[in-house]
Write a structure and sequence with these properties.
The protein is of the alpha/beta class. It has a single domain, classed as 3-Layer(aba) Sandwich (Rossmann fold), CATH 3.40.50.1820. It is about 40% helix and about 20% strand. It contains ten helices and eight strands. The model has no long low-confidence stretch (mean pLDDT about 95).
């Protein structure tokens, strides 16, 4: 399919502003560029309540931001991990998206400001992701959430962390997770799929960007093959929560996300995997200016409302 016209306009605007590529000589340079892009044209939706907190982590406190909708809880909880190649992003870069999800789903969204590479190599981000998920389950009443209805979600590197947190929860005795939403996730450090070749350049996220991100995140080849870095390498995916996997046709990460969906389905995990034709990496975050992003939000919203309703014994 051809490039979505609104996605093309976004790419043209990024190029005119000099915001491509994502990688840079240093992580700090890349972060400044990414922050400029992420904060441009923000129009945050009001939510019922927000609260910035610091929670215990494996190497010190982890900053989180709690979003709650209007009304009385307890609400289901979405533990959300931002994208940015494990190097970029934070609570502000995905604030708009977390607000949208909070309102549409009517859930408490907990955005996690996990440690970033290269200052904190793997498994720092993964361990923070699991620690935050466990904290939400153990402290649900304090944030107006229901510990029996917790999902993990994230985009790109955050999609990686969302499913890694689910793997860790399965293998470490909890908490129970009812669903995982993986939005164009980075699942495999091998970077050897067909979509890495056909979508190597020209569509926002490039193959060169991903090579750089993985170099920042992992310290060795052994790390690259660790299932907590490359979850598609996990020998056994049985017992993981049901998943929605969203991929973009014109994205280097497309094929690995879809291959992970096949692996989950083979392991008996209920999976919906949807490819958005003509879309680029990041399109869900562009929902304010791209109809295809709005469609992605609608699908994510519907999947989580159904999962949370089912967990509560409701018809959703």
């Amino acid at each position: 399919m051809p490039l979505d016209p609104q996605c093309k306009l976004i790419l043209d605007q990024m190029a005119a502003a000099g915001m491509i590529p994502l990688r840079a000589e240093t992580a700090e340079q890349a972060r400044r560029q990414f922050e400029t892009m992420a904060l441009a044209g923000r129009n945050p939706e009001p939510v019922g309540r927000t609260e910035d907190r610091r929670i215990p982590g494996p190497a010190g406190d982890i900053p989180i931001r709690v979003y709650a909708p209007e009304g009385a809880g307890p609400f289901p909880a979405l533990v959300y991990f931002h994208g940015g190649g494990w190097v970029l992003g934070g609570l502000e870069s995905h604030d708009d998206l977390c607000r949208i999800l909070t309102n549409r789903i009517r859930c408490v969204t907990v955005a996690v400001d996990y440690r970033l590479a290269p200052e904190h190599k793997f498994p720092a981000a993964a361990e923070d992701a699991y620690a935050a998920t466990r904290w939400v389950a153990e402290n649900a009443p304090a944030i107006g959430a229901d510990a029996a209805r917790i999902a993990t979600g994230g985009d790109s590197a955050g999609g990686n962390l969302a499913t890694v947190a689910a793997l860790m929860a399965r293998d470490r005795g909890g908490p129970a997770i009812v669903h995982q939403v993986l939005i164009y996730p980075g699942i495999d450090a091998a970077m050897d799929t067909a979509s890495y070749r056909t979508n190597a350049d020209g569509y926002f996220l490039t193959r060169a960007d991903m090579i750089w991100f993985w170099q920042q995140y992992v310290a060795s080849d052994a790390d690259r093959s660790n299932p907590h870095a490359s979850p598609i390498r996990a020998r056994d995916l049985r017992g993981l929560p049901a998943a929605l996997i969203v991929t973009a046709e014109l994205d280097p990460l497309r094929d690995e996300g879809e291959a992970y969906g096949v692996r989950l389905r083979q392991a008996g995990v209920p999976v919906t995997c949807t490819r958005y034709d003509g879309a680029i990496h990041g399109f869900v975050s562009f929902s304010s200016v791209a109809e295809i992003g709005k469609r992605g939000i609608e699908q994510i919203t519907a999947a989580l409302r159904t999962a949370f309703g089912t967990a509560a014994g409701l018809t959703s």
